[in-house]
Amino acid sequence: MKINRIFCIGKNYADHVEELAHLGPGTDHRPDGECVVFMKPPSAVVQLGDVIPLPKGRGDTHHEVELVVMLTGGGRDIAIEDALDSIAGITLGLDLTLRDLQTTLKNKGKPWELSKSYDGSAPLGDFKPFLEQDLQAMEFTLHVNGELRQHGKTAEMLYPVAQQISILSQSWLLEPGDVIYTGTPKGVAVLKPGDHCVLASPSIGRFEWHCE
Question: What is the CATH number of domain 6-210?
């Protein structure tokens, strides 16, 4: 299925929110129905076998490993209890972020797109068919040059996948090929030319990229 739109969910793991100092430890992280949403264009995708092109002269590029789902459609105003029926496949991906630029944009009260939505900012693994696996009982990791950088547990999401789909459907008519990056756990860090990234999950598979 061809990728249509790429929706991204921000601030979906409390430990990542804390690590970026958006909220301090001890702050109430319970979901309030207003999750952060931004988008990437299809040209952001880096397929398996391609090299991740790190932007030059634009500050640090951080990795953010995420569970990613692709939709069969779904329409508008989807109830949470029906949302998983809209999923066609699952995989892992990286939401690459120009962190220095993002910080500057945030401090100026400007949107994040320049730091999040550039071409090559969304390495994406091959999709595995969704066969009603428990999306809130998965684990996934990112190793860079053999070092464990991130370890995600979807049970720790502030906004579970079904709720994310329901929230998005309130503003968009969800269509076949729509993709959702579902949020990243703590451990984000800088990628450098020559780094080798390995994304893996027992439930999904293993995906690798080289950075240049």
Answer: 3.90.850.10
